[in-house]
Amino acid sequence: MSAASTMTTPRHARPASAGPAPGRRASWIPNGPMITTRHMELRKRRGLMIALIVVTIGIPTVFLVVRLLAHAFAPKSYGPAGGYDIFTALVVGVLFVFGFIVAAALGCTAGSIDLTEGMFRHLVVTGRSRVAIYLARIPAGLAVIWPLVAVGFTIVCAVCVFAAPTQINYDGASVPAGLSSAGLQSWAAHHVDEVLCDFDYAAPTPANVPCGNGPGLGPGAVIKLPPGVSVPSASPAAERAEAIRVARQDYPGYHKLFLYPSTSLMVKTGLWLELEAAVGLIVGVGLGSLLGQRTVAVILMIVLEIILTPIFSRARIPHLINVQRGLVGLATAHLEPAALPAVFGGDMGGSVAANHGTSLLLPESITVAICVLVAWLVGWTALGAWRMARRDA
Q1: What pTM was computed for the model?
Q2: Which of 126, 62, 106 is nearest to 277 (CA)?
């Protein structure tokens, strides 16, 4: 046997086995390096990241800092910076609406960034699945927007809890918080004038009760008496009994008020806001990929959230109600925690206590709302992936 025949093949001459196999490279499931690359591309866009931080963190932080300073320097003129009312105002008025818009802007950017920067051809020639290239943008975008929303919401929760007022202002009266029904009735028995002058009830206020606008002119005076008929006076015992009755009647409304949001409400609200951001991002990725550019896609998403959804969520159009129920914004609104005021101006009168669960939003069951959300997420993901697969490189 010759020496040449006994020589082993050099290691460097063997067929290389490192690297992904052709089957894995063509898989439609994105791997970790693909997602990390997409995430880095989004984070390096400084203008976009600054806009996301300003909206999700900057706006609520500046608002709360101004309220903290105003209350510190003029506590009699400006109320506490925290509490349940501030929490609901920031969540419904700022974080919900603008969180969706910035998430949609991020999604539209992620869905069209490869085309606008001329990198799509280079991605295709690598042999990677086009569907995997598209799907990698969704977790990459969520890794950007979810932490920002979480940080902004955490700041709101912290201030609203630690800077909350110490007494509830219910119908103009300063009432201790956390009373039971019996406790509120006991408090009312010792604060007859405040109850009969400030609480709402369907009876005329006794004439001898000294209210702010004069005797007998409190909120209880809602019944019009015939001309020439005066409101009779009442004995102290009768006034006390009437105050206890009013307190018992108004307890459901009082029970819905909080000095600061409960832990369960904050957890539910945080998950709801993250869901809204995820919907905006995924729909934005699909729309950006479908149109192949960012500007028009962002404008369409803003119009959907600011103009179309508020209108069609409240207006009942004959023969189109089922189409209106297909709006993703309405579906998300119906998944809102019950203790928050309805979004898109869907409250009857404004406050949670005054609404008693009544909403102006188009009625929709939770099951239908979940089905609409799933349809939007799956549908726009499929449209975006289909357009990516069919686009010329």
Answers
A1: 0.76
A2: 106
